[in-house]
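Whiteboard transcription, Tuesday session. T.W. wrote the structure tokens on the left side:
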């Protein structure tokens, strides 16, 4: 196992361990406080756990070469997992939002309990999340892993629901304002549904072989256009699968040069594209340029 793979694996395992710990603690906090804002944070942590497991699988799969049955690798499993996750998160958001609305319209909503213990759990959750994000960012900088970087960004987005849950529990404890809990939960539910739709759309687009980000396509075109020995290019096609981007490119070369020279031009161009966009898997076809 290479050093970079080992660091990526350590980040993936740390992410799964933290998510498991937070889910366990928030289950306890939900049982003792009956707080909807804690329930919303619990649902978000459950999503984290699934995404962390998916990220760990992606890291392990990324270390495996393509085989006879999967000539383009195994990265599409990321998209299948993400699509399933998005459905789960959307359902959780709708249930939490509906329950929050129901509590808001009640004349006497249920009173929260054991707010102090709940605040302690949520505060610890914030501390552990920040520590994990700092480690993931360090790993991502050193290894260039897109999976670790994406997981880090997702955990950063979890801080707001945790802070909101603490605020709701504190106001309930200090002033007996239980409606704040439902308002925070409703806001968190909206975030969950929008987040699920974004994850689901990205996974669906990848499963449908949607082209890569236009910025990546334009960058590859710019590299090919200016590459020494390349007189032109055409049929630049891309598709995404999980964290991978598959690129097919036809370049036009001088037909009078040797096969060795033509191969050297194509190989050096391929290396440069992969250096610029490490997530790319590149196939270059060589055509004879039209004489004018």
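and on the right, the sequence the group agreed on:
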């Amino acid at each position: 196992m290479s050093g970079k793979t080992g660091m990526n694996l350590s980040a993936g395992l740390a992410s799964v361990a933290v998510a498991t710990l937070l889910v366990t603690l928030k289950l306890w906090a939900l049982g003792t406080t009956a707080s909807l804002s804690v329930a919303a944070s619990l649902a978000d942590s459950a999503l984290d756990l699934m995404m962390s497991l998916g990220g760990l699988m992606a890291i392990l799969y990324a270390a495996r070469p393509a085989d006879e049955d999967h000539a383009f690798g195994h990265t599409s499993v990321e998209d299948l997992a993400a699509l399933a996750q998005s459905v789960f998160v959307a359902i959780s958001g709708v249930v939490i939002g509906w329950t929050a609305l129901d509590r808001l319209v009640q004349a006497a909503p249920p009173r929260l309990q054991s707010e102090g213990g709940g605040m302690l759990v949520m505060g610890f959750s914030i501390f552990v999340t920040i520590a994990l994000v700092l480690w993931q960012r360090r790993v991502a900088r050193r290894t260039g892993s897109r999976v670790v970087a994406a997981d880090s960004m997702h955990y950063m987005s979890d801080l707001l629901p945790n802070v909101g849950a603490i605020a709701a529990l504190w106001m309930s404890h200090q002033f007996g304002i239980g409606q704040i809990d439902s308002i925070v939960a409703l806001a968190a539910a909206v975030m969950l549904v929008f987040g699920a739709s974004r994850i689901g759309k990205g996974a669906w687009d990848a499963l449908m072989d949607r082209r890569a980000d236009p910025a990546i396509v334009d960058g590859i075109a710019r590299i090919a256009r200016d590459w020494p020995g390349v007189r032109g290019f055409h049929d630049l096609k891309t598709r995404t699968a999980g964290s991978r981007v598959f690129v097919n490119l036809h370049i036009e070369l001088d037909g009078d040069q040797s096969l060795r020279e033509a191969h050297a031009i194509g190989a050096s161009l391929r290396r440069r594209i992969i250096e610029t966009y490490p997530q790319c898997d590149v196939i270059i076809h060589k055509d004879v340029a039209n004489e004018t």
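Someone added at the bottom: The chain is about 70% helix and 10% strand.
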